[in-house]
Amino acid sequence: MTETSDHGQPSSPGEHTPPSAASIPPGRLRRVGMLTAAIALLIAAAGIVDREVKAREVAQWTAAQAIPSVSVVLPQRGEQATQLVLPGNIAAWHEAPIYARVAGYLKQWYSDYGAHVKQGQVLATIDTPDLDAQFEAAKANLNAARARANVYKAQMDFAKTTYIRWRDSPVGSVSQQETAQKQADYQSAMARYDAGLADVQSDQGVVARLQALEQFKNIVAPFSGVVTARNTDVGDLINAGSGAGGGSAPQLFRVADIHEMRVYVQVPQAMSGQIAPGMSAELDLPQFPGRQFQASVATTTQAINTTARTLLVELHASNPDGVLQPGTYAEVHFNLPPNPNVLMIPATALVFQQAGLQVAVLGPHGRAELKAVTLGRNFGDDVEVLTGLSPSDEVIDSPPDSLVDGEVVQVVNPQAVSAEDLASAAGAKSGRTSNDPPAVHQQNASGSQGASAGHAAH
User: Fold this and answer.
1) Integer angstrom CA distances of residue 110 from 114, 220, 253
2) SS3 call for 264
3) Which domain holds residue 178?
4) What counts of helices (H) and strands (E) characterise the chain?
């Protein structure tokens, strides 16, 4: 009987018919299913383990990022001399305004602005017709007084001679009454002569006073120096006196002695204790950039100004070439002696929080400690710390604003540097960004932990 295929076509006797699922033994199917399940379980387990590893890496990276990285510096002792810079005013060694002592008209002036004059040199002359007339009248009065005195002297001499002759006459030749009369005439003549001498002395005083005023027609320099002002010209009406005390007389000239200059500085009370006579200083003037002038402290007022709370300090500066000018503004650099009890730290290490002015230092186990400090002078980049720090404290420079007491920090420079080496140390800091892969952050974190361990050992 011929077999047929499923499609109704007869099959050849040589063809092989595949076995059906029912023909596979049940034990083989079970082994295949168990193998498949085991493979699925391995794949699931591997995924879970990989996810845990990644999560642990991310957690470690996040924890490392949460710890702030800081650099530390060591405070420096104030063993080096420092400078205190304050504004000052330069004044002449001597400076005097020149006023007229007599009234008249300016006849001629001989020295203009900037002229170097010697003591007693004539600066100008004044024409004084009124004074000249008074002087001549006084001399005439003196001559008249002297003439009257000569008349009185002659009368006195004649009265004296008459009295002596009457007094020495023989007894009975003249009466006593006549003798007494001659004596009275002599005493009266002597009194008139004394009055005449007094008039002569009085007139001599008037002449001497007017003669002295005549000398003031020549306006002279009171000392050697430079003419810094001339406020008059030929023909000006000159009034005697000065503008002081409410006077209206103008200032004719002004002369300044500039062979040496005085420099006045108002030193704040907090710094006045460091200023002493003999201390050296340098002057910086805007009109001479890059050039310094030497000065020294001469004296102080030894009293604090109650309004400004400052001490007035006077310095002296030699001026051989005359380049220092009265009225100049100058920056005075005082060379202060060193103070070994003062510590210097960078100004960037200061922490301003609700608790007040503080400084963060590195404590045990890599934790930050906040210490209250008292500051001295501020030098811009550095500040003085009077109290609150010790030389062995490792100060955290540029601490984060959110830093709190006891917070763990990572030190990027375990070997603390001084404040003056901070700039070079800042270039060696290793910065990390949030875009770095976790593996890199793990390396940096382990490195930081090793640095912290090394710092603790140090």
Assistant:
1) 12, 10, 11
2) strand
3) 129-216
4) 6, 23
Q: Where among 199, 216, 233 does a domain terminate?
A: 216
Which phi and psi angles does 304 have, rounded to 5°?
Answer: -90, 130
- Residues 172-206 have pLDDT tens digits of 777 888 888 988 999 999 999 999 999 999 999 99
The pLDDT assigned to 338 comes to 73
Residue where a domain terminates, one of 216, 247, 263: 216
Q: Is residue 170 part of a domain?
A: yes
322-372 residue pLDDT tens: 999 999 999 999 988 777 778 888 998 888 887 788 888 988 888 888 889
Residue 444 is part of a domain; what is its CATH number? 2.40.420.20
Q: Is residue 442 part of a domain?
A: yes
Q: Is 390 contained in some domain?
A: yes
Cβ atoms of 315 and 298 closer than 8 Å? yes
**Crossing angle for the helix pair 438-457 and 26-66, to the nearest 10 degrees:** 50
Which of 81, 78, 94 has its CA nearest to residue 279?
A: 81
Domain count for the chain, please give it.
2
pLDDT at 41: 80
User: For position 337, what pLDDT does the model report?
Assistant: 77
Q: Flag whether 15 is in a domain.
A: no
DSSP string of 369-434, one letter each residue:
EEEE-EEEEE-SSEEEEEES--TT--EEES--TT--TT-B-EES-SS-EEGGGHHHHHTT-----T
